[in-house]
Write a structure and sequence with these properties.
By secondary structure, the protein is α+β, with helices and mostly antiparallel strands. It folds into 2 domains: 76 residues, Phosphorylase Kinase, domain 1 (2-Layer Sandwich), CATH 3.30.200; 102 residues, Transferase(Phosphotransferase) domain 1 (Transferase(Phosphotransferase), domain 1, Orthogonal Bundle), CATH 1.10.510.
Protein backbone atom coordinates (compact mmCIF):
# COMPACT_ATOMS: atom_id res chain seq x y z
CA UNK A 1 0.00 0.00 0.00
CA UNK A 2 2.83 2.42 0.78
CA UNK A 3 4.89 1.62 -2.35
CA UNK A 4 5.64 4.96 -3.99
CA UNK A 5 4.00 6.88 -1.13
CA UNK A 6 5.39 10.16 0.16
CA UNK A 7 6.09 10.43 3.89
CA UNK A 8 4.27 13.53 5.18
CA UNK A 9 5.10 13.15 8.86
CA UNK A 10 7.54 11.04 10.89
CA UNK A 11 8.81 10.76 14.45
CA UNK A 12 11.63 8.87 16.18
CA UNK A 13 9.77 5.58 15.56
CA UNK A 14 9.50 6.15 11.81
CA UNK A 15 6.87 7.35 9.34
CA UNK A 16 3.49 8.36 10.79
CA UNK A 17 1.59 9.75 7.81
CA UNK A 18 1.85 8.72 4.15
CA UNK A 19 0.40 10.40 1.07
CA UNK A 20 -0.47 7.49 -1.19
CA UNK A 21 -0.21 7.60 -4.97
CA UNK A 22 -4.01 7.70 -5.30
CA UNK A 23 -4.17 10.90 -3.19
CA UNK A 24 -5.48 9.22 -0.05
CA UNK A 25 -3.62 9.32 3.25
CA UNK A 26 -2.56 6.46 5.51
CA UNK A 27 -2.03 7.51 9.13
CA UNK A 28 -0.28 5.14 11.53
CA UNK A 29 -1.09 5.11 15.23
CA UNK A 30 1.25 3.67 17.86
CA UNK A 31 0.40 3.04 21.47
CA UNK A 32 3.30 4.74 23.24
CA UNK A 33 2.94 3.14 26.66
CA UNK A 34 2.08 -0.42 27.64
CA UNK A 35 -0.58 0.77 30.08
CA UNK A 36 -2.63 3.51 28.51
CA UNK A 37 -6.24 4.39 27.82
CA UNK A 38 -5.31 3.66 24.18
CA UNK A 39 -5.25 -0.01 25.18
CA UNK A 40 -9.05 0.13 25.49
CA UNK A 41 -9.82 2.83 22.93
CA UNK A 42 -6.99 3.22 20.39
CA UNK A 43 -6.22 6.69 19.06
CA UNK A 44 -7.14 5.44 15.60
CA UNK A 45 -10.68 4.70 16.82
CA UNK A 46 -10.87 8.16 18.43
CA UNK A 47 -9.71 9.64 15.12
CA UNK A 48 -12.48 7.82 13.24
CA UNK A 49 -15.17 8.59 15.82
CA UNK A 50 -14.20 12.26 15.92
CA UNK A 51 -14.36 12.58 12.13
CA UNK A 52 -17.86 11.08 12.20
CA UNK A 53 -18.98 13.43 15.01
CA UNK A 54 -17.63 16.49 13.15
CA UNK A 55 -19.51 15.42 10.03
CA UNK A 56 -22.72 15.16 12.09
CA UNK A 57 -22.14 18.76 13.24
CA UNK A 58 -21.66 19.88 9.63
CA UNK A 59 -17.95 20.67 10.08
CA UNK A 60 -15.95 19.79 6.96
CA UNK A 61 -13.35 17.13 7.74
CA UNK A 62 -11.58 14.12 6.27
CA UNK A 63 -13.47 11.05 5.03
CA UNK A 64 -12.43 7.75 6.65
CA UNK A 65 -12.16 4.89 4.16
CA UNK A 66 -10.68 1.97 6.13
CA UNK A 67 -9.37 0.94 9.55
CA UNK A 68 -6.45 -1.50 9.91
CA UNK A 69 -5.11 -3.42 12.89
CA UNK A 70 -1.43 -4.01 12.12
CA UNK A 71 0.67 -7.03 13.10
CA UNK A 72 2.94 -4.97 15.36
CA UNK A 73 1.38 -4.91 18.85
CA UNK A 74 -0.26 -1.59 19.65
CA UNK A 75 -0.23 -0.38 16.04
CA UNK A 76 -3.25 0.52 13.95
CA UNK A 77 -3.78 2.59 10.82
CA UNK A 78 -6.51 4.61 9.19
CA UNK A 79 -6.85 5.15 5.46
CA UNK A 80 -8.70 8.35 4.65
CA UNK A 81 -9.53 10.81 1.93
CA UNK A 82 -8.05 14.17 2.91
CA UNK A 83 -10.16 17.28 3.22
CA UNK A 84 -9.56 19.20 -0.01
CA UNK A 85 -8.09 22.66 0.30
CA UNK A 86 -5.17 24.37 1.99
CA UNK A 87 -4.41 24.85 5.65
CA UNK A 88 -5.01 28.28 7.10
CA UNK A 89 -1.26 28.38 7.78
CA UNK A 90 -0.56 27.90 4.05
CA UNK A 91 -3.15 30.47 3.03
CA UNK A 92 -1.81 33.00 5.56
CA UNK A 93 1.62 32.80 3.91
CA UNK A 94 0.26 33.94 0.55
CA UNK A 95 0.69 37.45 -0.74
CA UNK A 96 -2.37 39.61 -0.21
CA UNK A 97 -3.66 37.59 2.75
CA UNK A 98 -5.31 39.67 5.48
CA UNK A 99 -6.10 38.53 9.00
CA UNK A 100 -8.63 41.34 9.17
CA UNK A 101 -10.62 39.57 6.44
CA UNK A 102 -10.00 36.00 7.68
CA UNK A 103 -10.55 36.54 11.40
CA UNK A 104 -14.39 36.64 11.35
CA UNK A 105 -14.53 33.19 9.70
CA UNK A 106 -11.95 31.81 12.15
CA UNK A 107 -13.88 33.22 15.11
CA UNK A 108 -17.08 31.74 13.65
CA UNK A 109 -15.52 28.28 13.34
CA UNK A 110 -14.06 28.28 16.84
CA UNK A 111 -17.22 29.74 18.37
CA UNK A 112 -19.37 27.07 16.69
CA UNK A 113 -17.04 24.34 17.99
CA UNK A 114 -17.25 25.76 21.51
CA UNK A 115 -21.04 26.10 21.32
CA UNK A 116 -21.29 22.50 20.08
CA UNK A 117 -19.19 21.27 23.02
CA UNK A 118 -16.12 20.40 20.93
CA UNK A 119 -12.83 20.68 22.81
CA UNK A 120 -10.01 20.35 20.25
CA UNK A 121 -6.61 20.60 21.93
CA UNK A 122 -4.83 20.52 18.58
CA UNK A 123 -6.75 23.46 17.17
CA UNK A 124 -4.22 25.57 15.28
CA UNK A 125 -3.61 27.11 11.85
CA UNK A 126 -2.07 23.88 10.51
CA UNK A 127 -5.18 21.84 11.37
CA UNK A 128 -7.74 24.25 9.92
CA UNK A 129 -8.35 23.81 6.19
CA UNK A 130 -9.93 26.34 3.83
CA UNK A 131 -11.93 24.18 1.44
CA UNK A 132 -12.42 25.01 -2.27
CA UNK A 133 -15.89 26.38 -1.40
CA UNK A 134 -14.24 28.72 1.18
CA UNK A 135 -15.46 26.91 4.29
CA UNK A 136 -13.20 26.18 7.25
CA UNK A 137 -12.79 22.54 8.20
CA UNK A 138 -10.62 20.45 10.51
CA UNK A 139 -7.96 17.78 10.08
CA UNK A 140 -5.79 15.75 12.49
CA UNK A 141 -8.81 15.17 14.69
CA UNK A 142 -7.62 12.48 17.14
CA UNK A 143 -7.11 14.86 20.08
CA UNK A 144 -10.70 15.98 20.55
CA UNK A 145 -13.52 15.62 23.08
CA UNK A 146 -17.24 16.15 22.58
CA UNK A 147 -19.25 17.42 25.53
CA UNK A 148 -23.04 17.35 25.63
CA UNK A 149 -23.27 21.09 26.21
CA UNK A 150 -21.27 24.19 25.22
CA UNK A 151 -17.72 24.35 26.54
CA UNK A 152 -17.36 25.95 29.95
CA UNK A 153 -15.27 29.13 30.20
CA UNK A 154 -12.23 27.35 31.67
CA UNK A 155 -12.02 24.97 28.67
CA UNK A 156 -12.43 27.85 26.22
CA UNK A 157 -9.53 29.63 27.94
CA UNK A 158 -7.44 26.46 27.90
CA UNK A 159 -8.20 25.97 24.21
CA UNK A 160 -7.07 29.52 23.50
CA UNK A 161 -3.89 28.96 25.55
CA UNK A 162 -3.01 25.97 23.34
CA UNK A 163 -3.72 28.09 20.27
CA UNK A 164 -1.55 30.95 21.60
CA UNK A 165 1.34 28.54 22.27
CA UNK A 166 1.15 27.40 18.66
CA UNK A 167 1.21 31.02 17.45
CA UNK A 168 4.29 31.69 19.60
CA UNK A 169 6.03 28.44 18.57
CA UNK A 170 5.50 29.29 14.89
CA UNK A 171 6.78 32.87 15.44
CA UNK A 172 3.49 34.38 14.30
CA UNK A 173 3.12 36.68 17.32
CA UNK A 174 3.57 39.85 15.25
CA UNK A 175 1.22 38.95 12.40
CA UNK A 176 -1.57 36.99 14.09
CA UNK A 177 -4.23 39.03 15.98
CA UNK A 178 -4.33 36.75 19.04
CA UNK A 179 -5.74 39.44 21.30
CA UNK A 180 -8.61 40.12 18.89
CA UNK A 181 -9.36 36.39 18.65
CA UNK A 182 -9.40 36.03 22.45
CA UNK A 183 -11.62 39.10 22.87
CA UNK A 184 -14.11 37.88 20.28
CA UNK A 185 -14.33 34.39 21.77
CA UNK A 186 -14.30 35.29 25.45
CA UNK A 187 -16.82 38.10 25.05
CA UNK A 188 -19.25 35.74 23.35
CA UNK A 189 -19.54 33.62 26.51
Amino acid sequence: MIDGAKVLEADSFGPKVYLLQDGNILKLFRRKRIFSSALFRPYSKRFIDNAVELQKLGVPTLQVLQYYRLQTPGMTAVLYQPLPGETLRQVANKEGFSWQQALPDLVGLIRSLHQSGVYFRSLHLGNIVITPDQRMGLIDVADMRFLRKPLPAHLIKRNLQHFARYIARENLDESFPMQALEQALLSSK
